[in-house]
Write a structure and sequence with these properties.
Layout (H helix, E strand, L loop, with lengths): L10 E6 L2 E6 H7 L2 E11 L2 E7 L10 E2 L2 E3 L7 H13 L6 E14 L2 E13 L13 E7 L1 H10 L6 H9 L1 H5 L5
Parallel strand pairs: 3-8
Antiparallel strand pairs: 1-2, 3-4, 3-6, 4-5, 4-9, 7-8
Amino acid sequence: MDPVMRPTKIMIPAWIDGTLTPVEKLDAHLRGLRHLAVSVFVVRDGAILIQQRALGKYHTPGLWANTCCTHPEWDEAPIHCAQRRLNEELGITGLTLAHRGQVEYRADVGNGMIEHEVVEIFVAHAGGDLSITPNSEEVMSTRWATPETLATEIDQDPTRFTPWMRIYLKQHADMIFGRDQM
C-alpha cells in the first residue's frame, strides 16, 4: 500500500510501566494494556438506546452494546470524546452529558484481544424528538430497551452482548441508572 494511502493509526492513552503513553489502539488491545475509555448511555422514558456493533468491527462485531463507547485520542478530554463519538457513530448532537463515575474492567473480546479499560461513564437524557443517524461502518442497528429487559435478555443469551455491556448492567447499574437518574 502506498504510504500516502495508509490509514492514520489511532493513538489512545494506555499505561506502559505505570506511565500513561500514546499507544496504537489495536496494539493496546492485542497486548491487553490498561487504557482509557468512555461509555455513553442515552436514556429516554426509562429506556436506554443501545446499538448493535457493525459486522466490520475488529472485535465484538454484531454484538449489542451501550449507546456508544470508545477510546479518547491522546490529550482528548473524556467529555469531548463522548460528544464526538455520539455524533460519529449515531449522528447525535446537542445532548447534555452528565458524568456518572469511573469503572475499570478487564475482558476477553475475542481474536486474541483484551479490553482492560478505565472507563468514564456518561449519561444523557433525550426527548422523543431525538434524531438518530447510525454510521453503517460503526453501527448495524439501534433500539431502545429498559434496564430490566436488558437484564433478562443477558441472562437468557449473554453471547448477544459485549462483555462491557454485561459488566455495566450486572456490576454498575445503580451508579449508571440509579432511580433518580432514569
